[in-house]
Every structure is written in structure tokens, then in C-alpha cells.
Design a protein that fits this description.
Largest sheet: 10 strands, mixed
Strand content: 15-25%
Structural class: alpha+beta
Helix content: 25-40%
Number of helices: 22
Distance between the termini: 49 Å
């Protein structure tokens, strides 16, 4: 809501500094590596014999004996042999055994290097568990570490741009980036370690949801974490296709993909397009929303409290009765409006309030509000409400009403094959809608279904230039990606693709074993107020808006769902080739 309010106006720091290592862990990853390779200086015959014997033990799978023998060597040769044992363990799928060997590396640099190379090795078989690497570095690299020793360095996740305190109060997050002795490692941690195939850009990468779910379930059953490549859906940044292969019991999604790096907030972004990578936890969240037990719609809203709106109206009426405001009094009058409005309530529906989707929606809504009142730059193509009003000051009528903006999905069409086994999403986007609301004497907002010209213009500009905004502000691209995944879930539900593939959704089902991360639930945020003076009248805005994602309406709308035989042709070329056991993604030929 935008509130137009009329008034009258006349002309550890002892011997060592505390160190911190920033890690991209909020839906992100961390890779530890070292630019200084540990080299082997093995020239003596005895050393060569030890190395040969270690290799023989490794080839026979005797990893414990190989580690013991490697431990008899000295210096840099010992570290090299220990690293060789670690790599063999990873290659044999015994990554849990690497902790003991990692302890025997002689120096910090070697341990960090080995930890980074473990990640790379793991990624070639599906991904790396960076949570374990954090544990390894904190416990095996000489500290002190604050989390382990009570003082010294810290490993801190990047935040998502907003902060929600334990009481649910949302504010903008300002992060101080401290640096320490592992700064070079932190910089290398921003690029994900991927095998060459996954890191390479692809115009059409296919991800089998059914195979992925089975692999996720397998890892959870074995007590292993979900790896990074799974978390970021093999680097997909957009969904263009949805396929079902009933005979194979397979549901596949496809779109552009590439390797990813981590931005300043620790979020994974495509190294090819710069767009945020799609995330597994978002996919699972919307699959549960679009299921028999779900609401099939989700969204959020940020709204002033009715009682406070009533107090604003009373204050405005009282101040008007006292005559014109002085120029010096305008700002204090505006600030008073903000204080009266107080905290606004945040409502999330259709998805858990502690989900990542909830945070993205609320942040996008909050930032749209800031753009609308000129507190955040939206770009030259999206002028704020004041800038638009300045072009025609006559529109500043001084009436007391509410202008509401909210975001929703926008798709050109969903093309499908005649047998409804292949779907193509066209014209993915987000649009901003607007409405004027009437305020009653008790502060109640009454919908009118109409929007005045300046209100409409802001919404139209926001919609038209949304892609440009998304390119500069990742949260808006993130929201669009969530809408894409939600449309996947809606198409699956509407066309019963899961039943046709004989897939019960397993770990991804409503009561499935996979549990997305839980974040602090946003409940309230302080009001943000801006003001300008037009035609002797002060216009004060307080924006409250929202996000509404009714993807089921897209999946059901006959005007948007159009038959296209060509989509079936794409489905044939997108079929999975012969894949190794456990592989759940591939690139189209």
C-alpha cells in the first residue's frame, strides 16, 4: 500500500587481531584450496620405495596400512603421500575416513590444500559436502578458532541482504567484510569446484527429478548430506522445459545452465548469465505447496496495522486544522507519520514462513517498496512515485487514499505436446500490479479495483523493465526463478505427471525425509517514509505491497496452454543417454 497523506505547506586485539573467513553457506558453498601446491622432493631410493609400497597398498584397497606406511616418511614427502591416500579414499567412496588422515598432514597450508582438493574430487562424482570441510578446517587447521577455542578466527555465512532477528523483525543488513590470514582462501572459495562437464555452459541441461530424488534419498538414508551440485540443480538458472517419460518412470526439467560462483552475499550465480542458480530446497518447497495437502498458491504481504492507520488519519486531520506547516516543520511532520504507522505486519502464506522462498519474497517486496518511494535506486527506467508525480504535479490531489503495489507471475504461454508429455514455458517474467484503496474512518482499507494514473505508471514501468532490474539486483531474479520452479510443480500437479511416472515424490513429498533449511521467520518491519511537496500539499508515502504466486491458474488457463507438436520433438532429443549409476543430469545433444 502507498499512503497519500495531504497537508498544508507554506513557502581480540591484544597481540593478534581477530580473524574471520567468510563462507558462501546460505544456500551457498565453500571451497578451500591453496595456491601453493605441496610438492614432492623424493630423490632418495628409500623414499621411492616407500612411495611405491604406499601405491601398492592403495591399489589393493588397504587404505589404513597405506596411511600408516606414509606416516613413516618425513617432511614434505610425508604430506604428499598422505594426500595420495586421501584421494584414493575419496575415489573409493570412503570420504568419511579422510578425517583421520587429514589430521596427519604436517601444516596448515597442506591441510587447507587437501581439503580443497577433496571438494574437487567429490564434485566429479556429484558434489562436495562443504559443511564437513568447515568442520575439518576448524578442527584440523591450527587456530585459534572462535567456535572451537572461544577466541580467534571465525567462519561466518554470508547473509541474504536482509536481516531477521530472533523476534522476527526484518531490517536491511549491512555487512562488514573482515579479512585475515585466510583471505586468499576465501577468494578462491567464491568459485564452485565442478567437473568440466558441469562447469561448462549449456543451452539445455536436463535434470531428472526422479533420479535426483532417489540420490538425495540414498544419501539421507546413509547419513550423508546433500551435496552442492544437488542443492543447485546442476547449475540450472531457468526452467524452459518439463518432460515426463512414463515408460521410464521419469520426470525431467531442462533449461540453460553453467557453473556457478558466489556473489558478495554468498549466493550462487551463474558464471555464464549472472542469474542466481535455481535451488533444490525451493523446488521441494513448491512441490509440497502444489500437492494434495498444499494450498496450490503462495505469497506474502507487508501491511500497516489498521489501528495505526486510524491514528494517522486522526493526526492528519488535527494537523490540518492548525493551518499551514512551515518549511522547517514538513520533515518532522513526515517523521511523525512514520512513527505513528510504526511496525508493519509481514504475512506469508502457502509456504513455510521459515523457508528460503519466504525470505526471498519478503525481501523482493520490501525492496520494491524502497524503490517506489525513492529510498532505493531502481534504475533510470523505473522512476519512483515522486519522480512520476513531478512530471504532472496536478495529479497530486491531496486526497487521503492508499495505493497498493504487488508482484505476481507473468508467462506468455505454456506450450505442450498433443499427449501432454512435453511442456515448454515461454515468456517467463514477473509483473507488478497496482490498485487504489479507500481508507475508512477506522483505518480499514477497502479495495476499489482501480488505480490512478501515476500508480499505474509505476507498476507498468516496474513490469516492463523487470529483467533489467533483475540483472542488477539478484533478489528479483531469484524471485523469478522461484516462480519458474513453482510453475514446474503446478504443471506436475495439474497434469498428474507424478502419477503417470509412478513417482510418489519420495523424499520430496510433503512428509518426505528431505528437509529444507529453516530460517528466522520474518514477522514485522519498521515503516519507511519519504515525502515531497507538490502544489502546496505534502505527499507522504508508505508502501506496503506483497507477492502472490497463483501458478495453478497458469497451468489451468486454456488461453495460455497451447498445443505444439514441436515440443514433443524436443522431448525426444532430451531423453537421457546411457548414464553412470547415480548420475541424474546431462546436457542435450
Amino acid at each position: 500500500m502507498v499512503l497519500k497523506v495531504p497537508t498544508r505547506h507554506s513557502a581480540r586485539s591484544k597481540q593478534r587481531s581477530r580473524k574471520s573467513l567468510w563462507l558462501g553457506l546460505l544456500g551457498g558453498a565453500a571451497l578451500f584450496s591453496s595456491s601453493n601446491a605441496v610438492t614432492v622432493l623424493a630423490a632418495e631410493a628409500v623414499v621411492a620405495d616407500v612411495a611405491k609400497d604406499v601405491e601398492g597398498l592403495l591399489n589393493s584397497g588397504e587404505f589404513g596400512a597405506a596411511a600408516d606406511l606414509a606416516g613413516t616418511a618425513t617432511g614434505i614427502t610425508r604430506d604428499q603421500l598422505m594426500e595420495r591416500v586421501i584421494f584414493s579414499q575419496i575415489g573409493a567412496g570412503e570420504s568419511a575416513e579422510t578425517k583421520a588422515v587429514l589430521q596427519q598432514l604436517s601444516n596448515d597450508q597442506a591441510r587447507v590444500s587437501a581439503a580443497g582438493q577433496i571438494a574437487r574430487k567429490q564434485m566429479t562424482s556429484g558434489g562436495a559436502d562443504f559443511t564437513e570441510l568447515i568442520y575439518l578446517i576448524q578442527n584440523e587447521v591450527e587456530g585459534p578458532w572462535f567456535d572451537v577455542d572461544g577466541e580467534g578466527g571465525t567462519m561466518t555465512p554470508f547473509t541474504s541482504g536482509i536481516k531477521v532477528d530472533p523476534n522476527g523483525i526484518l531490517t536491511r543488513e549491512l555487512r562488514e567484510d573482515r579479512t585475515g590470514r585466510l583471505t586468499n582462501v576465501e577468494q578462491q572459495a567464491r568459485v564452485a569446484a565442478l567437473n568440466e562437464d558441469m562447469a561448462s555452459p549449456s543451452t539445455l541441461r536436463l535434470v531428472s527429478l526422479t533420479r535426483l530424488e532417489k540420490e538425495v534419498a540414498r544419501r539421507l538414508d546413509e547419513g550423508k548430506p546433500v551435496v552442492e551440485s544437488m542443492k543447485y540443480l546442476a547449475g540450472l538458472s531457468q526452467v524452459q522445459y518439463i518432460f515426463v517419460y512414463p515408460e521410464q518412470g521419469e520426470i525431467v526439467i531442462g533449461g540453460p545452465a553453467a557453473g556457478w560462483s558466489y556473489d558478495g552475499r554468498g549466493m550462487p550465480v551463474s558464471q555464464s548469465s549472472g542469474r542466481p542458480s535455481l535451488q533444490l530446497e525451493d523446488l521441494v518447497t513448491v512441490l509440497r505447496t502444489f500437492s494434495p495437502a498444499g494450498q496450490a498458491v503462495f505469497g506474502c504481504s507487508i501491511d500497516p496495522q489498521q489501528e495505526n492507520l486510524k491514528k494517522v488519519m486522526e493526526y492528519v486531520s488535527e494537523s490540518q486544522s492548525k493551518g499551514p506547516l512551515s518549511p522547517a516543520g514538513v520533515r518532522s511532520w513526515s517523521n511523525k507519520i512514520g512513527n505513528i504507522l510504526g511496525a508493519q505486519d509481514i504475512t506469508v502464506f502457502g509456504v513455510p514462513g521459515n523457508s528460503r522462498i519466504a525470505r526471498v519474497m519478503v525481501e523482493a517486496d520490501y525492496r520494491m517498496k524502497l524503490i517506489g518511494i525513492g529510498k532505493l535506486e531502481g534504475g533510470s527506467q523505473i522512476p519512483d512515485y515522486f519522480e512520476l508525480l513531478a512530471k504532472d504535479p496536478a495529479l497530486a490531489s491531496g486526497s487521503l487514499d492508499a495505493l497498493r503495489w504487488w508482484m505476481t507471475m507473468q508467462y506468455e504461454s505454456v506450450q505442450h505436446s498433443p499427449d501432454l508429455t512435453a511442456f515448454e514455458i515461454r515468456g517467463s517474467g514477473v509483473k507488478c500490479l497496482s490498485e487504489n484503496q479507500f481508507l475508512t474512518a477506522n483505518g480499514e482499507r477497502v479495495a476499489t479495483g482501480k488505480a490512478e494514473p501515476v500508480n499505474q505508471k509505476f507498476a507498468a514501468n516496474f513490469t516492463k523493465h523487470y529483467q533489467e532490474l533483475a540483472a542488477k539486483d539478484p533478489v528479483f531474479a531469484d524471485l523469478q526463478g522461484i516462480f519458474d520452479l513453482a510453475l514446474v510443480a503446478a504443471v506436475v500437479q495439474q497434469n498428474q505427471l507424478d502419477q503417470r511416472a509412478n513417482w510418489d515424490r519420495g523424499a520430496f513429498a510433503a512428509n518426505g525425509e528431505y528437509q529444507p533449511l529453516a530460517y528466522a521467520t520474518p514477522k514485522q518491519t519498521d515503516s519507511v517514509v519519504n515525502h515531497h511537496v507538490y502544489n502546496g500539499k505534502d505527499v507522504v508515502l508508505q508502501v506496503a505491497g506483497g507477492v502472490r504466486a497463483d501458478l495453478a491458474s497458469i497451468a489451468k488457463d486454456p488461453s495460455l496452454n497451447q498445443e505444439s507438436p514441436q515440443v514433443g520433438t524436443v522431448a525426444q532429443s532430451a531423453r537421457a543417454p546411457e548414464l553412470p549409476i547415480g548420475r541424474w543430469w546431462w546436457d542435450a545433444k
